[in-house]
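During the second year of the project, the team shifted from modelling isolated chains to modelling whole assemblies. The rationale, set out in the original proposal, was that interfaces cannot be judged from single-chain predictions alone. As a representative example for this report, we include one of the complexes processed in the last quarter. Its constituent sequences, exactly as entered into the pipeline, are reproduced here:
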Amino acid sequence: MLYREAGQFKSSYASDQAIFPIRQDKIGIALILVVALLVVPFVASNYVLNSILVPFLVFSTAAIGLNIVTGYCGQVSLGTGGFMACGAFFAFKLTTAFPDIHIILIFLLAGFGTALVGIVFGLPSLRIKGFYLAIATLAAQFFLIWMFTQNPWWTNYNPAGVITAPPRALFGDFYITGVRATPVGKYLFLVCFVTILALVAKNLVRSALGRAWMAIRDMDIAAEIMGIRPMMAKLSAFAVSSFFIGISGALWAFIYTASVEALAFEVTRSFQVLFMIIIGGLGSILGSFLGAAFIVLLPILLNSAPAMVGIRMSTELLTHLEFMIFGALIVFFLIVEPQGLARLWQIGKEKLRRWPFPY
Amino acid sequence: MSEILADPLPLDGDAPEAARVFDEVLLSVDNITLTFGGVTALSNIGFDIRKGEIRAIIGPNGAGKTSMLNVINGFYHPQQGKITFKGEERRRMRPHNAAKQGIARTFQNVALFKGMTTLDNVMTGRLLKMKTNMFWQAIYWGPNQREEIKHREFCEHIIDFLEIQAIRKTPVGRLPYGMQKRVELARALAMEPELLLLDEPMAGMNIEEKEDMSRFILDVNDQFGTTIALIEHDMSVVMDLSDRVVVLDYGRKLADGTPAAVSRDQKVIDAYLGVGH
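Output from the structure prediction step:
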């Protein structure tokens, strides 16, 4: 079965505007979901689940969030870490204050809270652009982390400044946070939750709102002529983006690490997510996943590759080598395909469409 | 002396376009003065645009034509003067308010959304008319999908009208220049404007592309009844298309009238060809 759309004719606008208009895409996505839900939980080890798949899914959510404001709306943001911290601490405060509220609702509320913070720190984007905006959002990063480390109220007066996720069940006995949560349970919850979030993001960017964001990104003067209010478009992008990033921060604190301090969301975290969307592809939901996979998987691969081929190395040398190769690969990727992995996929698609004929 | 201006017209008779008569004033500008620091871009300009006509704004480089469009559009705020649109005096406003009132525009240097497809570009023209809220957009199905399909259908009519069906899924950054200009016109038309401002729609085109574009402009005016204000340097195009012409030079108004009258005006001829000393 070849991957090509030739011969699939659309007879209604609805089918032409479908989220996956190509039949093979539909089959592919369904297959991935089936494998992720039915096969992976049985074959993957706890290590793979806990340290590869769970962080991959959490980072994907953050990357989708940043991609909305930076990739789709063109507003560079370096405040990702700060917004993730917001989500984590909001969720912690909410669930300790109201233990009866369902955990999913807690995550969503934390996301909405972060969205409000995002709107406030998105205000400078109405006047400044590009690098200058990046610096302004850096202020958000430092201010928020400062607030969470300096104010013990946020950690419920924990002497170490650490928040620990209390046990919360999705339903009945199915715990997804706390000590009774199993890696498989966490993973299954994340797959479903992140899939829904990704669908929401995809729907937004292919609707009127997404078009307004992209218009602002590509040519803000023309966008204004079309009747788009720059303030509404930019602030809504910041809000939606922060919503996703806040949820990813809450997922990070509650499901991935289970206990976390504010310094885990330092500026390096912001850069990490920024690298993900640059490598994965700006303005692409698929790219967010690819970029997250690249950044999460590559260090692990580099780490274990020498052992696989039978070379013994000291841990220190390995760590330094990992950094060097990682950096070199990023540079290589940016030169070969500045538009990211998602673009490579796009090019591959177009090639397959014509293959094996050159025209 | 007057070759450039007068050639396309038979100097003895009236231009055929002059037969069209328009009474209702859609937009009028009075005594507009616009300065940037010490530079006066426009001084005391006044003219009107009547409903249904094709109005050309011409003048040598730096005459203030684009500034005039920017004033009508709400990008620039004149220091003096007033603008009346649809019988109502306009307050100081932003460009998106002008869009809401029914003024659409294309740009001298193509200002398309480069990362989006032709179809998405045209669909942005419908944004003002799309009303579903963010919640439904996140779910997509239901009201949002119905609305998307309704507006898609409208956009497809415009795509058909401008004969750009083949490129509807192509990112506009990859299109040739002439096509980009056409997509920009499509995007402006998707707004169903009452007044369409075209800033040099034929700049940099070859003769076939110019002919196509002229045909589209006349068709738009004819079929949709859209009032068009157009800036153009190609005099043969201006003389053939427009019902009335206003001539600017150094921010002042030189002449205003039918193409035939304007092309015989000595001041206009002097402005274009220079004055002998």
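The interface with chain B takes residues 13-14, 17, 19, 200, 203-204, 206-209, 211-212, 214-215, 217-219, 221-230, 236, 240, 283 of chain A (CB under 8 Å). Residues 215 and 226 of chain A are 9 Å apart (CA to CA).
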